Amino acid sequence: xxxxxxxxxxxxxxxxxxxxxxxxxxxxxxxxxxxxxxxxxxxxxxxxxxxxxxxxxxxxxxxxxxxxxxxxxxxxxxxxxxxxxxxxxxxxxxxxxxxxxxxxxxxxxxxxxxxxxxxxxxxxxxxxxxxxxxxxxxxxxxxxxxxxxxxx
Length: 152
What we know:
With 152 residues, the protein is an alpha+beta fold. The protein has helices spanning 20-32, 46-54, 76-84, 102-120, 144-150, and strands at 11-15, 38-42, 66-69, 72-75.
C-alpha cells in the first residue's frame, strides 16, 4: 500500500554545482515551475551533503541527479522524469517514458552524466544562482530557502 505524499512540501533537486548542463537544467525547471514547487541545492553544498546522508546516498557521487519530496528520494532518470511530469506545459505528457525499463533509462542517463563536462563544460567553482533563483536555493538547511524567502 502506497502512502500519500504531502504535495504542499517543496520538491528539492540536488544538482552538480559546477556543471553548466546542471545550471541550464536548473534554469529550465525554474522557468517552467509556475507553482513554485521546486527548490535547489548543489550536491557539493553543506545542505546537499546533509540531504545525501539523510537519504543514505553516497556524498561523493556528483554524477547523480536527486529529487527529494516528502522524504522520498529518486535518482538519475527516475528523478528527471518525475521532475518533467510536474512542470507546466507539455512536459507533463512525458508519463509514457516511465514504461521504458529503468535499467535502459539509467544507461542513457549515465552516458550523459559521465560525459557532461566534455559535452557542456564545467566551472572550477559552484555557479551562483541568478538573482531570480537565489531564493529557491537551499543554503541554511533543508527548508532554509522558504525561511529566507519569508524574510523578504
